[in-house]
């Protein structure tokens, strides 16, 4: 509600409104003492006050949640509060008067600056927040929304107000049903210069009945003046906002399913596309595939059942409620109607459950994990998903324009940090259509595509049909820029786990490319593969290269950890060994430095990559293709429906198939430079790389080895800086363990202490003898590529870590099944059996010592399935006790009574089987559990 300054009370119909408890006032007149009575005191305006605005709030609003800000002193006031559980923003605006005492230029300047401030304030209001803008705009405009607008002559800047209303999709409430719409009277003339604006979702119902209160006279000492405007605006909760519209033009899920199956309809679509090929441009291929998907897989209209007719029930309920002495016959009829309605609701629930169980049977019959987890998602209870909600310095959610501006600046600072690539020279190579089709077919049907692209399943289905046209187009491209469909990508910013998604630095950027662009990049990668393998042959980088994998990186580090553990274990000989002549070494141990890069693919230098490509291939056309795929490419950023573009000059697109090979090439060049300084033997023996994770690990046998390891670590860090790569200091750690006579002095020499933000003391390891050298966090255990690396029993630590992760996943499956009230126990058991992954899926055996595994007959909390039946196996308490006793562990007593998904035999059954006797009868606690024979599996081992 907006009223002018007053002394006294308003009309009765206004005071009795329960929801209309907020007032906005403006225009203090000089020389008049104005006093407002409040619930907790008085607010007085000084006689010297010439103008100003104020907002009065109802005492029912929590004062602890009220925030205010004055955008323009005396002209624009913003108040934020929470009403009925909904965030609310009230803006009280008072425009400058078009004064004859000022020049037209000065009038326009004052009024335009006010509208700019109002525009910024409205833009910063989040879409889920209720909004009311009330005040004197002093700009009569006949083009505002409603039919009840005065026909006064508009001001010269009325178009600015109209543009503000149309830009933010506001609705002027007091322009609809008012019989006398004018809000201001002066010398017999009437005008409508006071408005109450709100958002479109809030403008329905009673809100459009907003009208001036002409019977409430304000400023009776004046001949004319303003009339207050009354508006009943209902707060709008986020659950009442309109759902996001489905913009898809075809049934994508059905298309994906039939492409996987190879159905007849998918084959007909492929024949339809083949009949329209070839074409001249890749964009035409995209248009044809989009049209084919819309034709053969049209958007399915949501089949909705006829709603239950409950009008009679509610009519009876109103009659019974309004009658002081209801008729018993009416009461009986109401109860019968309610019971009939309940039966209809139950029947609808049974029909939905039966339809869902048909999908469950199909998923179990197919045995497909993709279909099974899609079914499980429907059972999963609702959980709020973390979304990017950027905030400004004041802690407020950003509007559309401000969010686009911040995201654009963030993207430009990262992806536009370097100088752009020079213009390309030379032609592109001829790509074999079969090679291009191979890489387009390799794209999974459910992969995301940028806006305006045909579904990935359509590209996968028609890869052989479209690849000749794309190959022919690339052969005709000279030195001009490739089309945007093959270059540009939609930048998707997803929240990083464990970090608030309120600023761009806490978001992980992912580039979404069109499938044909991925196919061209994949073909270029395959052409570069022979030269890359030859270039990286002597480089200890084990990611993205054929014949190398994660197990190789694990084996190198595990061999070092076991070697150090064995040396430190034998460094303290016993009394008998000392008598036999054994000597205690001066210094033995190990040092491991784990390094992680921050935004590795986003900060690499394109110029350096292009300059290194001639070392891989002698074909200049292939180098020109890689150059063309990155030259003047752009990222498209979207925020709340608005889109902006940022041209990129730095980094490689993470969604591109060529990105892994290019990043491996850059790390290979870095390691080769280290080899030139330290020698091939040292670098290849003590440095291990896997993608952006680098590890320096060296076995120490003297103080000289410590200094040499420190020198290599410093060289790695400096080389990364030279290549414009950034180290993530929060993920750089040191593992150190020493034994021998000099162990204590060496440890003391390189140890440093500091305090973190919480004031806790943390231990650091200094890479040098003085304080001028950097110090890194010294920890007992680090997580390296999925294993727990330490100089202690890291095998058992890794096993415990992975089992706990597997238990969490299975626990989530159990919660999802338990939340499905309409799902029978038998179907819940079938789904759980299907989703119960074997233990080898978690790669638990690949890091264990074979000698230790020979003694482990029973694995605790290890989810597995039997090969014959595929059903989960339950372990008894004896299996747990045998595992604990063999490992020498001491567990809490409650653990002994916990039954989990495990394979194994009890110790009693093994003993009875060995002596050919009948096993003893199970105890009462074991009657409901079964121990089945364990499935023996081989264990991978690595050389020590």
UniProtKB/TrEMBL annotation:
<dbReference type="InterPro" id="IPR043128">
    <property type="entry name" value="Rev_trsase/Diguanyl_cyclase"/>
</dbReference>
<keyword id="KW-0862">Zinc</keyword>
<dbReference type="Pfam" id="PF00078">
    <property type="entry name" value="RVT_1"/>
</dbReference>
<keyword id="KW-0863">Zinc-finger</keyword>
<dbReference type="InterPro" id="IPR043502">
    <property type="entry name" value="DNA/RNA_pol_sf"/>
</dbReference>
<protein>
    <submittedName>
        <fullName>RXLR78 protein</fullName>
    </submittedName>
</protein>
<feature type="domain" description="Reverse transcriptase">
    <location>
        <begin position="475"/>
        <end position="789"/>
    </location>
</feature>
<dbReference type="InterPro" id="IPR013087">
    <property type="entry name" value="Znf_C2H2_type"/>
</dbReference>
<dbReference type="InterPro" id="IPR000477">
    <property type="entry name" value="RT_dom"/>
</dbReference>
<feature type="region of interest" description="Disordered">
    <location>
        <begin position="910"/>
        <end position="944"/>
    </location>
</feature>
<feature type="domain" description="C2H2-type">
    <location>
        <begin position="874"/>
        <end position="896"/>
    </location>
</feature>
<keyword id="KW-0479">Metal-binding</keyword>
<dbReference type="GO" id="GO:0008270">
    <property type="term" value="F:zinc ion binding"/>
</dbReference>
């Amino acid at each position: 509600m907006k009223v002018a300054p007053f002394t006294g009370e308003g009309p009765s119909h206004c005071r009795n409104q329960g929801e209309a408890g907020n007032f906005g006032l403006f225009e203090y007149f000089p020389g008049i003492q104005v006093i407002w009575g409040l619930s907790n005191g008085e607010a007085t305006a000084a006689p010297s006050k010439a103008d100003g605005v104020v907002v009065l709030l109802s005492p029912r609003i929590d004062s602890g949640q009220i925030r205010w800000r004055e955008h323009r002193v005396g002209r624009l006031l913003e108040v934020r509060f929470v009403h009925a559980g909904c965030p609310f923003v009230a803006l009280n605006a008072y425009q400058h008067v078009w004064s004859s005492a000022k020049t037209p230029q000065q009038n326009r300047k004052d009024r335009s600056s006010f509208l700019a401030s109002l525009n910024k304030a409205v833009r910063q209001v989040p879409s889920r927040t209720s909004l009311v803008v009330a005040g004197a705009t002093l700009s009569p405009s006949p083009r505002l929304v409603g039919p009840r607008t005065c026909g006064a002559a508009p001001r010269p800047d009325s178009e600015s107000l109209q543009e503000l209303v149309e830009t933010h999709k506001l609705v002027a409430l007091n322009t609809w049903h008012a019989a006398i719409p004018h809000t201001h009277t002066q010398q017999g003339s009437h005008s409508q210069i006071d408005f109450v604006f709100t958002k479109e979702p809030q403008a329905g119902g009673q809100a459009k009945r907003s009208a001036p209160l002409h019977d409430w006279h304000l400023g009776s000492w004046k001949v004319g003046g303003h009339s207050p405007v009354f508006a009943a605006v209902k707060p709008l909760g986020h659950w009442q906002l309109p759902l996001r519209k489905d913009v898809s033009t075809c049934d994508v899920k059905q298309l994906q399913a039939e492409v996987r199956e190879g159905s007849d309809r998918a084959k007909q679509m492929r024949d339809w596309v083949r009949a329209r090929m070839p074409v001249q441009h890749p964009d035409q291929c995209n248009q044809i595939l989009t049209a084919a998907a819309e034709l053969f897989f049209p958007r399915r209209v949501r089949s909705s059942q006829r709603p239950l007719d409950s009008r009679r029930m509610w009519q009876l309920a109103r009659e019974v409620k309004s009658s002081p002495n209801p008729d018993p016959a009416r009461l009986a009829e109401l109860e019968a109607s309610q019971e009939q309605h309940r039966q209809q609701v139950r029947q609808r629930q049974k029909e939905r459950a039966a339809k869902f169980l048909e999908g469950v049977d199909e998923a179990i019959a197919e045995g497909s994990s993709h279909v099974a987890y899609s079914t499980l998602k429907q059972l999963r209870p609702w959980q709020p998903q973390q979304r990017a909600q950027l905030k400004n310095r004041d802690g407020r959610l950003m509007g559309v324009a401000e969010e686009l501006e911040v995201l654009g600046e963030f993207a430009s600072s990262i992806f536009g940090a370097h100088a752009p690539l020079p213009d390309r020279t030379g032609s592109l190579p001829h790509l074999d259509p079969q090679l291009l089709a191979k890489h387009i077919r390799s794209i999974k049907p459910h992969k995301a595509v940028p806006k305006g692209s045909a579904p990935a399943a359509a590209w996968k289905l028609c890869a052989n049909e479209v690849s000749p046209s794309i190959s022919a187009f690339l052969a005709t491209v000279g030195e001009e820029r490739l089309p945007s469909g093959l270059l540009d990508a939609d930048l998707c910013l997803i929240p990083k786990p464990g970090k608030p998604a309120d600023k761009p630095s806490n978001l992980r950027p992912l580039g979404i490319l069109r499938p044909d662009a991925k196919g061209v990049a994949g073909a270029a990668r395959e052409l570069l593969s022979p030269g890359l393998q030859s270039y990286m042959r002597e480089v200890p980088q084990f990611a993205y290269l054929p014949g190398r994998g994660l197990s190789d990186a694990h084996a190198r580090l595990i061999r070092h950890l076991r070697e150090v553990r064995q040396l430190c274990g034998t460094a303290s000989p016993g009394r008998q060994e000392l008598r036999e002549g054994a000597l205690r070494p001066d210094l033995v141990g190990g040092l491991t430095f784990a390094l992680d890069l921050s935004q590795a693919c986003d900060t690499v230098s394109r110029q350096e990559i292009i300059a290194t490509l001639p070392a891989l291939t002698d074909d200049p056309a292939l180098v020109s293709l890689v150059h063309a795929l990155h030259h003047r490419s752009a990222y498209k950023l979207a925020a709340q429906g608005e889109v902006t573009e940022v041209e990129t000059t730095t980094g490689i697109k993470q969604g591109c198939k060529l990105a892994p090979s290019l990043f491996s090439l850059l790390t290979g060049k870095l390691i080769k430079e280290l080899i030139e300084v330290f020698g091939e033997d040292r670098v290849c023996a003590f440095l291990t790389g896997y993608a952006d994770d680098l590890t320096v690990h060296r076995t120490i046998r003297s103080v000289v080895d410590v200094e040499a390891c420190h020198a290599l670590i410093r060289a790695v860090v400096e080389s990364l800086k030279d290549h414009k790569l950034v180290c993530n200091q929060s993920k750089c750690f040191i593992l150190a363990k020493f034994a021998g006579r000099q162990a204590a002095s060496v440890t003391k020499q390189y140890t440093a202490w500091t305090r973190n933000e919480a004031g806790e003391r943390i231990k650091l390891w200094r890479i040098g003898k003085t304080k001028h050298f950097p110090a890194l966090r010294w920890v007992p255990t680090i997580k390296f590529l999925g294993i727990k690396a330490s100089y202690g029993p890291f095998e058992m630590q890794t096993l415990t870590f992975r089992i706990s992760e597997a238990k969490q996943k299975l626990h989530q499956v159990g919660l999802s099944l338990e939340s499905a009230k309409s799902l029978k126990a038998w179907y819940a058991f079938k789904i759980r059996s299907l989703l119960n992954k074997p233990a080898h899926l978690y790669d638990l055996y690949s890091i264990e010592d074979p000698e230790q595994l020979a003694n482990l007959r029973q694995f605790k909390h290890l989810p597995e399935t039997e090969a014959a039946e595929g059903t989960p196996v339950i372990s008894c308490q004896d299996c747990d006790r045998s595992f604990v006793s063999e490992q020498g562990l001491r567990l809490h007593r409650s653990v002994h009574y916990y039954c989990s998904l495990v394979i194994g035999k009890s110790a009693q059954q093994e003993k009875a089987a060995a002596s050919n006797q009948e096993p003893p009868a199970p105890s009462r606690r074991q009657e409901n559990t079964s121990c089945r024979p364990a499935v023996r599996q081989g264990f991978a081992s690595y050389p020590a």
